[in-house]
């Protein structure tokens, strides 16, 4: 007995089901494409990095899974490959930290000179975050030149140009009315401290995004890099440039005339230890918990504590040289041990609740440290002369 042929209504219904299924699959494919494009616009793709990788949370996505096995430097396509990656990384960190702290002090000085209504430190924070955003967007291209260069630019220069400890000091000074006439209302002090916090956070986030957008306009390398002549000269330069600049700064501090010994000279001598220490602490602690960057948190907290201790010692200045040394510790070591630019990258990579918790805990911890160290002096009402630039 022959089977009945399907009716026209049943055939039409089957065709509609197939078309709906096909349209649904195409819609899902288009949505995945849009999501991937949006992700690329914000942060570069994550891929196994060479052994010269910067702290894991400076890759543009803070919530990273366990890091894959790293590619040996000899297998990474680059125009210049370091023969001794670790030596080159530390040398370039030293070099970048010196120029980062000089750029920060120069930017702050320009902000003071211009009599801007915005506190001068925000310009240094914005500049560092803008460069960091550009570096994050062009990370692959920078590493195609040479892998250690991204560590130099992101961790070394941007991390030293921006500072969390100095920002925390500015906030505490505003809360405590240290830079305002006696009798200023507590509400005014509270609003001043919160204004510094909000303006810095918003300006840094905005500057970072502008840097990402600028990086998108710069053409990328389309060809696979091949080694260029001059490998030996490049390797020697990258291994020696940091120690030589650091040695030059030390000689200037020791043997230079007195008028060449402002706090900037102390700062460039003490900046490299802070930057290198931050690099290693971040590498060891940031990987412990993808939901909270313990490495950056520890660096920012330690630097805030040391900064507060130096500010307390500066309450009774004994000599201009001593004040310059204390200021050098604050601007150099503490300024380069702490960072805003890395924190901005981490805040963007964490989930919403995690990013709020990370920032609030970091902010409260820094203020508590300043209160514990400087609180007794503030509550005593002592307004004796202090070193210039102290909190």
Automatic annotation (TrEMBL):
Fluoride channel required for the rapid expulsion of cytoplasmic fluoride. The lineage of its organism: Eukaryota, Fungi, Dikarya, Basidiomycota, Pucciniomycotina. Its main location: membrane. This is Chromosome condensation protein, CrcB. One of its GO terms (cellular component) is plasma membrane. It comes from the Eukaryota. The chain crosses the membrane at residues 91-111, 117-136, 187-212, 232-255, 292-314, 358-379. It is found in: Cell membrane. It is a multi-pass membrane protein. Keywords: Cell membrane, Membrane, Transmembrane, Transmembrane helix.
């Amino acid at each position: 007995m022959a089977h009945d042929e399907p009716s026209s209504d049943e055939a039409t219904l089957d065709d509609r089901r197939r078309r709906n299924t096909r349209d649904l699959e195409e819609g899902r494919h288009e949505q995945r494409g849009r999501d991937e494009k949006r992700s690329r616009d914000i942060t570069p793709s994550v891929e196994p990095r060479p052994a010269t990788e910067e702290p894991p949370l400076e890759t543009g996505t803070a919530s990273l899974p366990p890091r894959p096995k790293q590619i040996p430097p000899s297998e990474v396509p680059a125009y210049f490959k370091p023969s001794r990656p670790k030596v080159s990384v530390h040398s370039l960190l030293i070099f970048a930290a010196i120029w980062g702290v000089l750029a920060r002090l120069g930017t702050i000085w320009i902000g003071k000179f211009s009599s801007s209504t915005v506190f001068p430190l925000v310009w240094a924070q914005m500049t560092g975050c803008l460069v960091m955003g550009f570096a994050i967007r062009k990370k692959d291209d920078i590493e195609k030149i040479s892998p250690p260069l991204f560590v130099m630019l992101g961790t070394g220069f941007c991390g030293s140009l921006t500072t969390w400890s100095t920002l925390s000091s500015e906030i505490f000074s505003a809360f405590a009315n240290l830079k305002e006439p006696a009798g200023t209302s507590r509400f005014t002090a509270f609003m001043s401290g919160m204004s510094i916090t909000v303006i810095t956070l918003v300006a840094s986030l905005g500057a970072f995004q502008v840097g990402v957008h600028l990086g998108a306009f710069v053409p990328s390398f389309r060809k696979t890099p091949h080694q260029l002549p001059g490998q030996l000269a490049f390797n020697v330069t990258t291994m020696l440039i940091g120690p030589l600049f650091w040695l030059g700064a030390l000689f200037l501090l020791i043997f230079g005339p007195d008028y060449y010994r402002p706090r900037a000279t102390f700062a460039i001598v003490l900046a490299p230890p802070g930057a290198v220490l931050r690099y290693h602490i971040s590498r060891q602690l940031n990987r412990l918990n993808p939901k909270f960057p313990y490495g950056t948190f520890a660096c920012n907290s330690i630097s805030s504590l040391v900064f507060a201790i130096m500010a307390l010692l500066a309450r009774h200045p004994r000599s201009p040289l001593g004040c310059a040394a204390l200021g050098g510790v604050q601007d150099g070591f503490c300024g380069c041990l702490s960072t805003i630019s890395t924190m901005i990258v981490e805040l963007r990579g964490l989930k919403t609740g995690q990013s709020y918790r990370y920032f609030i805990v970091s902010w409260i911890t820094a203020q508590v440290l300043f209160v514990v160290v400087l609180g007794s002096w503030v509550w005593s009402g002592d307004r004796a002369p202090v070193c210039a630039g102290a909190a």
